[in-house]
Amino acid sequence: MNRMVENKVVVVTGAGGGIGRDMALAMAREGAKVVVNDIGASVGGEGKDEGPAQAVVREIEAFGGQAVASTDSVSEQAGAARIVGTALEAFGRIDVVVNNAGILRDRFFHKMSAEEWDAVIKVHLYGSFYVSRAAAPHFKEQEGGCFVHMTSTSGLIGNFGQANYSAAKLGVAALSKSIALDMQKFNVRSNCISPFAWSRMIGSIPTETPEEQARVDRLKQMTPAKIAPLAVCLASDAAKDVNGQIFAVRNNEIFLMSQPRPVRSVHRSEGWSAQTVASHALPALKASFHELERSGDVFSWDPI
Question: Could you tell me which of 56, 220, 237, 290 has the fewest CB atoms within 10 Å of its CB?
Answer without folding.
Answer: 290
